[in-house]
C-alpha cells in the first residue's frame, strides 16, 4: 500500500545543511496499522509529510497504492491526495464553521453536490460518534471531540490511507485511549491502512501491527511489534524491559534473560524449572506487556546449580528466547 525507498530530505545547503531523513526505506502493507516511533527531532513528521508531498523529498521514491507520488504535481497531486486522509496533533479546525461544516469542507473542495455532501457528513458524524454535535463550534468541544472531527474530516473523501501526525500527543491518557480505539475500529471495519507517527510507546503497544524506529533521521529498527518485543536485543524490547544497572551476583551464579510470548507468558515456567533441575533462582527484574491481543514478557534472573546448561536447553526447547549474560 505504501512503499518508501531510500527517502532523504535535506534542509539547506553546504555547511548549514540539516539531514532530516537519511535513506529511509519501509513498507506499509494494505490494511495494517504501522507506527513510526522516535523522539523529537528524529524525522518522524518530515517522513509522514513526505508521503502526501506536503514536504518534497530531496531524493528517493514514495509509492501509495502503486502510484509514485514524487512524480506528481498540480491537479494530479491534488487528485492523489483525495485518497490520502491526514489527521494532525492540533486538529486544525476552522473556528468559524460548525462541526458539520468543518467535515463538509473537503467535500465542497472535491465538488460534491449539496445533497451528497449533507448525506456524507451525516454518515461521518455517526462513524465518529458525534451525531449530536453537528451544529456545535470547535470552541465548544473537548480535545477528544475535536480530534474525532479531524478524523471524520480526514475520512470525508473515503481514502484508503490515513496518515496520523502525533494525533494523540495533545490529549490526556483516557482520551488518547478512546481515540486509538476509534482508529483501531476504523482499521478493522473499513480495512483502512494507517501510518502513524508517535513518540509514545503506549500508542504502539495499543494498536500497531508493525513499527519502525527513527533516530536522527535514520531507520534503526523495524518489524512486527510482538516479534521485536520478544527479542531481548531489540531497541523496542530494551525500552520496554529495562534491566537493572548493577547487582551483587551470588557465587557461581549465571545471569539469564528469558523472553516469553503468547501462551508461554502465562505458564509457570520458573517453578517447573526449579523443581526439574534443582536450581536456586534469584529474580532481578521482570515484566509482561500486552500488544493488542498478544502478551510478551521478559525476565532477568540469576541461576545457581549444577544443571545450568540443561536448564537453558530445556527453556529453549519450549520455544523461549534465552540470553546468557555472563
UniProtKB/TrEMBL annotation:
Query: Which SMART domains does its entry note?
Result: AAA, NIL
One GO molecular function term of this record is:
ATP hydrolysis activity
The record's section on Pfam families has: ABC_tran (PF00005), NIL (PF09383)
The answer on whether this UniProt entry bears the keyword Transport reads yes
Q: Which SUPFAM superfamilies match?
A: ACT-like, P-loop containing nucleoside triphosphate hydrolases
State any GO BP term from the record: amino acid transport
Q: Which UniProt keywords apply?
A: Amino-acid transport, ATP-binding, Cell membrane, Membrane, Nucleotide-binding, Translocase, Transport
- Where is each ABC transporter domain found? 2-241
* Family of the protein in this entry: Belongs to the ABC transporter superfamily.
User: What is the name attached to this protein's record?
Assistant: Methionine import ATP-binding protein MetN
Q: Which organism is it from?
A: Dictyobacter kobayashii
This protein's gene is called metN
Amino acid at each position: 500500500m505504501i512503499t518508501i525507498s531510500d527517502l532523504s530530505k535535506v534542509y539547506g545547503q553546504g555547511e548549514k545543511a540539516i539531514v532530516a531523513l537519511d535513506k529511509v526505506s519501509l513498507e506499509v502493507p494494505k490494511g495494517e496499522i504501522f507506527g513510526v516511533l522516535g523522539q523529537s527531532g528524529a524525522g518522524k513528521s518530515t517522513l509522514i509529510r513526505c508521503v502526501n508531498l506536503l514536504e518534497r523529498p530531496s531524493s528517493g521514491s514514495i509509492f501509495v497504492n502503486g502510484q509514485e507520488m514524487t512524480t506528481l504535481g498540480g491537479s494530479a497531486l491534488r487528485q492523489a491526495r483525495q485518497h490520502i486522509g491526514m489527521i494532525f496533533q492540533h486538529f486544525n479546525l476552522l473556528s468559524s464553521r460548525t462541526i458539520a461544516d468543518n467535515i463538509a469542507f473537503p467535500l465542497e473542495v472535491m465538488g460534491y453536490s449539496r445533497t451528497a455532501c449533507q448525506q456524507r457528513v451525516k454518515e461521518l458524524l455517526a462513524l465518529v460518534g458525534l451525531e449530536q454535535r453537528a451544529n456545535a463550534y470547535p470552541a465548544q468541544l473537548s480535545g477528544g471531540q475535536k480530534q474525532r472531527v479531524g478524523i471524520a474530516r480526514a475520512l470525508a473523501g473515503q481514502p484508503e490511507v490515513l496518515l496520523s501526525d502525533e494525533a494523540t500527543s495533545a490529549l490526556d491518557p483516557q482520551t488518547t485511549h478512546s481515540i486509538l480505539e476509534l482508529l483501531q475500529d476504523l482499521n478493522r471495519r473499513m480495512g483502512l491502512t494507517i501510518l502513524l507517527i508517535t513518540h509514545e510507546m503506549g500508542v504502539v503497544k495499543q494498536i500497531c501491527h508493525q513499527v519502525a524506529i527513527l533516530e536522527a533521521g535514520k531507520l534503526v529498527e523495524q518489524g512486527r511489534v510482538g516479534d521485536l518485543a520478544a527479542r531481548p536485543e531489540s531497541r523496542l524490547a530494551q525500552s520496554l524491559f529495562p534491566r537493572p544497572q548493577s547487582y551483587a551476583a551470588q557465587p557461581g551464579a549465571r545471569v539469564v534473560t528469558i523472553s516469553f510470548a503468547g501462551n508461554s507468558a502465562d505458564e509457570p515456567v520458573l517453578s517447573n524449572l526449579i523443581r526439574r533441575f534443582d536450581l536456586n533462582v534469584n529474580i532481578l527484574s521482570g515484566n509482561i506487556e500486552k500488544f493488542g491481543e498478544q502478551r510478551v514478557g521478559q525476565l532477568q534472573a540469576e541461576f545457581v546449580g549444577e544443571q545450568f546448561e540443561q536448564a537453558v536447553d530445556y527453556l529453549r526447547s519450549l520455544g523461549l528466547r534465552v540470553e546468557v549474560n555472563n
